[in-house]
Write a structure and sequence with these properties.
alpha/beta; four-stranded mixed sheet; three-stranded parallel sheet; 13 helices; 47% helix; 18% strand; globular; binds (2S)-2-hydroxybutanedioic acid
C-alpha cells in the first residue's frame, strides 16, 4: 500500500513540476502584466500578446513632454487595438534621466524622451545644442535635427542598442538666479550654476567666470532653495513645471541655448516588433511628434505669462548685451571645434540660413 502511495505521490510531484516549469516559462515571456518581454524576436505566439512599453520621463504630465507622451499612449493603444500598452512614468517617479540611460539599453524600459545634451556619453557632439546663441530660431533647430544633423548624431546610438526616433522640442533656455539679476557677463562671476551634463555647459559658465555642477533635474529645486547653487538655465516650461520661480527670483530672458528631446527606443525591442505593429507605431510617433511641437510652441509662452509676476525682476538681453555674451563665450566654440572639428557645427550654421 505504501508503495502505491509513494508511486502516486511521485507522479503528482512530477506533474506539479511540469506545471510550475510551464508557468515559469510563460511568466518569463509575458512579464507580470501578461505582456511580452520586449526585445524578443517576433513570432506568431508573441504577436498575439500585449506588448508593453514603459516610458519614464523627468517632467510632469503638464509639460509638453507629458502631454505628448499621453497622446502617444492613446494613439498607440487605440491604433493597435490594445496590442500595445503604454505605461507612462512622469516626474522621475520610476527613473531619472541618468538611470533611464542605463535602463533603456537593457530593455527594462522601452521609450525615453531625453534632453539631447544628456546623450553626450554616446557622442560628445550632441552638445552642439549647448553652444551659446547658435540656433537663431526653432525652425533652424528642427532643420538641423530633422535633417543631416539628426541622421548623423542619431545613428551614434545604435552601437549602444538604442534607436533614435526623432526630436521633440521644449524651447530656448533662459538664466535664472537666486542671487541677483544677470544682465552682463560680469554678473556671472563667482556664482555657481547647475548644468544638465557635459563639458560644453561647464565651459560656458567658466568662460563667464562662474562655476558649475551637474545635477539631476529632480534635485535642482532643493539645490536652489538651499543655496548650494546660485543659478540655473532652463526653459519656461521647466521653470514653471518645477516651480523654480519660488526659489530663484531673478529671470534673464536670454534665449541662449536649446533644450530639446531625443525620442529613443531600445533597438532590439524595436526590431523585434511584429512588422504591422512597428509600422503603426511609426505613424503614431509621426503624429505625436507633430502635435508635441505645436504644444511646446504655445506652452512656453503660456507658462511664462502665468509665472512672470512671481519673479522679483526680469531682464531681457538686448542685441548689444548678446554681442558682449558672444564675445565672452567664443572660447566655448573654439574648444568645440578643436575637439570635434566643424562638420556638425557647419550643419547647424547651414540650418540657420
Ligand atoms: C533638465 O535636466 O533640466 C531637463 O533635461 C529636464 C527636461 O527633461 O526637460
Amino acid at each position: 500500500m505504501k508503495k502505491v502511495l509513494r508511486a502516486v505521490a511521485s507522479v503528482c510531484l512530477a506533474v506539479l513540476l511540469v506545471v510550475v516549469a510551464a508557468c515559469g516559462n510563460k511568466a518569463a515571456q509575458t512579464g507580470s502584466s501578461g505582456s511580452t518581454s520586449a526585445g524578443q524576436p517576433s513570432s506568431q505566439t508573441q504577436s498575439e500578446e500585449t506588448i508593453l512599453i514603459k516610458f519614464p520621463f523627468v517632467t510632469s504630465m503638464a509639460s509638453e513632454k507629458g502631454k505628448a507622451a499621453e497622446i502617444f499612449k492613446k494613439l498607440a493603444e487605440e491604433r493597435t487595438n490594445g496590442r500595445v500598452k503604454v505605461e507612462l512614468y512622469p516626474s522621475s517617479q520610476l527613473f531619472n534621466d541618468e538611470q533611464s540611460l542605463e535602463q533603456l539599453p537593457r530593455n527594462t524600459i522601452q521609450f525615453i524622451a531625453i534632453s539631447l545634451t544628456k546623450l553626450v556619453g554616446y557622442d560628445p557632439q550632441f552638445q552642439i545644442v549647448d553652444l551659446p546663441f547658435l540656433f537663431k530660431n526653432e525652425e533652424a533647430v528642427l532643420r538641423f535635427w530633422d535633417g543631416e544633423g539628426g541622421k548623423i548624431l542619431g545613428s551614434k546610438l545604435e552601437s549602444a542598442n538604442m534607436k533614435f526616433l526623432g526630436v521633440w522640442t521644449n524651447g530656448f533656455k533662459h538664466f535664472v538666479s537666486n542671487k541677483k539679476l544677470l544682465k552682463t557677463p560680469e554678473d556671472f562671476k563667482g556664482l555657481k550654476f547647475r548644468t544638465q551634463a557635459g563639458k560644453v555647459l561647464e565651459q560656458q559658465f567658466s568662460a563667464l567666470g562662474a562655476g558649475s555642477v551637474t545635477l539631476p533635474f529632480s534635485e535642482v529645486y532643493t539645490a536652489l532653495q538651499q543655496g548650494t547653487i546660485d543659478g540655473i538655465e532652463n526653459t519656461f516650461v521647466d521653470i514653471y513645471g518645477q516651480n523654480f520661480f519660488e526659489v530663484a527670483k531673478y529671470l534673464t530672458l536670454s534665449n541662449h541655448g536649446r533644450l530639446d528631446y531625443g525620442l529613443i527606443t531600445n533597438l532590439t525591442f524595436w526590431n523585434g516588433l511584429p512588422d504591422d505593429i512597428r509600422a503603426t507605431l511609426e505613424q503614431v510617433i509621426a503624429e505625436a511628434t507633430a502635435q508635441e511641437r505645436e504644444i511646446a510652441r504655445n506652452l512656453g509662452n503660456q507658462y511664462f505669462e502665468e509665472m512672470k509676476d512671481e519673479f522679483n525682476e526680469i531682464y531681457e538681453l538686448t542685441p548689444a548685451d548678446i554681442e558682449l555674451f558672444k564675445q565672452a563665450l567664443q572660447p566655448v566654440y573654439d574648444n568645440f571645434i578643436k575637439e570635434h572639428g566643424d562638420e556638425i557645427l557647419n550643419l547647424a550654421i547651414q540650418a540657420n540660413q
